[in-house]
């Protein structure tokens, strides 16, 4: 048997869905829950309470009492704020700033976010109005908890869609404040790992915020790389490889782990970019490590350098590129004498 609170939340969830899919938001004008005899109870929703309909939910004194606490009323879950709150719940398309804040002030966002029907309600509300979305984002007290919760993770993923840089920073700040044990627990959890991967995708155009997250993840890379779930978080970081300083930091940490699978993945993904990276401060460090830790990386980089003699000469004189060329000469002299001969000859 569904708990009374869960039933009440399910009623609200269905009312919101009805407003979206029925004629012109008729529920917005009904005094939902205010009157036990209201005709709104006879709208063909008998299935929501094991066949007895929402009217019996309202008449259940335990439900009346518990939902009453959310609306500060005395005679029903919506009587505390009357029809205005009822309209707000039933017609999310008509929210204004005042009603949005009024509704959220009466709801326990943290409790709703981790409840099956409560999560559906918050997702519907955040989708309906920019003000409501912003209010919900700011009122979630614990995003890491949402990330690993079965229902909360759905709300977390919805909030990532169209997030502003400030909203992303708020989320990442909470993650960055976790200790290493909690961060690792979150990243290797099935729901948590999926949430991390989605978050990383949304940080593509926010390098400063991405840097905050990768800095935190770098403290547990060794543990993540050997975990079957956690390694997907690192792989998602690798999928965002580019030439930014932020991602260079991530790549260097991964290369230092000397995990052959990940190292080869990085070296292969950087093909065509070795020359350009070599002339940049952060990028040159990445190329040096590719040459040092991977024979494939050494081969790819040197072949790219040899494709254009003029470019190779310029790299040899570049303030960062010259260190890469020195590293390539040392590595090929030990690992591949033929490549060493070709590289040395091209530099003459």
From TrEMBL:
Keywords: Repeat, RNA-binding, Translation regulation. Residues 74-83 have a biased composition (Polar residues). Residues 74-98 are annotated as: Disordered. InterPro entries: ARM-like, ARM-type_fold, PUM-HD, Pumilio_RNA-bd_rpt. One of its GO terms (biological process) is regulation of translation. SMART domains: Pumilio. This is PUM-HD domain-containing protein. Residues 84-94 have a biased composition (Low complexity). GO terms for molecular function: mRNA binding. Residues 117-348 form the PUM-HD domain. Signal peptide: none annotated. The keyword Isomerase does not apply. PANTHER family: PUMILIO HOMOLOG 16-RELATED (PTHR12537:SF137), RNA BINDING PROTEIN PUMILIO-RELATED (PTHR12537). It comes from the Eukaryota. The keyword Coiled coil does not apply.
